[in-house]
Amino acid sequence: MARILVVYFSLTGHTKQVAEAIAHAARADIEAIRDSAGRDYSPPHLFWFAMEAMLHQLPDIEASVHDPAAYDLVAIGTPNWAGTATPPAMAYINRHKGQFRQVALFCSEGGQGGEKVLAQMAEAIGLKPQAELIVTEPQLTSGALQGMAEEFAHAITAAAAAGPSR
Ligand SMILES: Cc1cc2nc3c(=O)[nH]c(=O)nc-3n(C[C@H](O)[C@H](O)[C@H](O)COP(=O)(O)O)c2cc1C
Q1: pLDDT for position 20
Q2: Collapsing DSSP states into helix, strand and coil, what is residue 78?
Q3: pTM
């Protein structure tokens, strides 16, 4: 069976919820990205973290638990911060760039700008994503996530089984 890894950063739990739904539907391994400095991502500091995201600065993150090179496909998720991927998610991509066989990308957001976030991640990785998913907060609260995650999981499972196109 093809191996899939779901990796995500989440501050307030939305992206974690999306990641868990995908991992469950795709029977994938799952891993959270964590800031190794243990920085406090609480509201008084968010302005600075948003600035960091816009300036594309990369924080130190904890050692990866799973080896992405051992997976047929890695799905990477982040919240949308001011139209950019979060610095911890970009730090993960920067660390493992060149080790991914195939990728899929997802983000959660308040309601707009997710396309830019996924495009930024795809460009940094240098691979065309096999699937993309943007989940808004209203979709999370309405219960739409389940069906969206299942559709995404179906696409990544098929891509992982088929292998990278040459
Ligand atoms: C610093 C910051 C900037 C944000 N910027 C945007 C934005 O530009 N567009 C948007 O739709 N949501 C924005 N949001 C909302 C988050 O993307 C949204 O709440 C997301 O689901 C949070 O994911 P998490 O719970 O996994 O941390 C922002 C949130 C924060 C904290």
Answers
A1: 98
A2: strand
A3: 0.95
